[in-house]
Every structure is written in C-alpha cells, then in structure tokens.
Amino acid sequence: MAAKILIVTGDAAESLEVLYPYQRLREEGYEVHIAAPTRKKLQFVVHDFEPGFDTYTEKPGYTWPADLAFAEVDPGAYAALVIPGGRAPEYLRNDLELRKILKSFFDADKPVAQICHGPLLTAAVDSLSGRRVTAYPALELDMQAAGATFQDAEAVVDGTLVSARAWPDHSAWMREFLKVLRSRVPVD
C-alpha cells in the first residue's frame, strides 16, 4: 500500500500550488488526499503578475473536490503534509481542527512542504521558531516575527521542512521535498 500524503487547503488557494504537488506526488506513487474545512468542491484562484501592478492579481482558477474535512483527518494515517499558498492560509490559520493536524505533523517530525502564503499556517502553530524558511517575499517580516530566519531562495530545506516562495519555484520545491520523502517515506 502506498504511503499517504495530505494536502490541506481551502477556497482561494493558488490553483498551481495545490494541483502541481497533487499530481507530482501521485506520479511518484504516493496516495494523496486533499482536506479542507468541509467536504465540498473547492474554488481555487490564479495569482499572476501584470505590468504596472505593484503586487499580484487574482483570477478564478480551477475547482477541485476536497476528499475529506479537517475534522475527519487522522494525522497518524499520513506520512507527510503539503501546505499550498494563495489566500486560503489567511483564514485557515484560524481553524482549530487544522491547527491540531499541523501540530501533529510537526510534533512527529514528519515531512512538510509549504509554499507561498502556506507558512502562515505553520506560524500559527508556532512551528517556525528557530527554522530557516522561505515564503512569498512579502511575508518576510511575518516569518521573522514567527521566529524564523527568512531566506529569499527557490527552496529552503530545514530538516523535514521544505519551503518555497511561489509557483514559479515548483521544480526546486518538489525536487527537494522528494529527496526528504524518499529518505523518510520511500514508495513501496
């Protein structure tokens, strides 16, 4: 039986940051489940850059069904966790069930991949203190406030935590995360 990986997300997550790891990890032979506040069809978004804008723009993205609600997740059944970005982490960090899930993964030192605004979730459970991370560059001060050392790089590995800035860094992010996964949770 293939090791299971959990992706935690919600509405307004960045489409590419959910679907790229979902497909890439399945391609490697892992079983991947998506959890959200409730079982429903999620509405993702596309963040892109337009000439003349000081920040990214947001457009409607793909829809995708959540396999289970946060309250249904047994963290012990999963070998690793993926935390996509987009706007979803901004409100998901207030979800008590999700915070329990996140804390469980960090307490067990399981592999965690986070990208873009995803580190807002790990900061919410005080799991960044003393770590090296990257995130969407606008979050540098948030990462420092959470006790992390921010590095502006495609991918930063700190033990079992692998972080990336945003979807343009997918290749480096998944390459590094797969190294951690293969060493800790090889595919059967």
Automatic annotation (TrEMBL):
Residues of the signal peptide: none
UniProt superkingdom: Bacteria
Domain DJ-1/PfpI: 4-179
Matches recorded under CDD domains: GATase1_PfpI_1
Family of the protein in this entry: Belongs to the peptidase C56 family.
Designated name of the protein: DJ-1/PfpI family protein
Organism per entry: Streptomyces triticiradicis
Lineage: Bacteria, Bacillati, Actinomycetota, Actinomycetes, Kitasatosporales
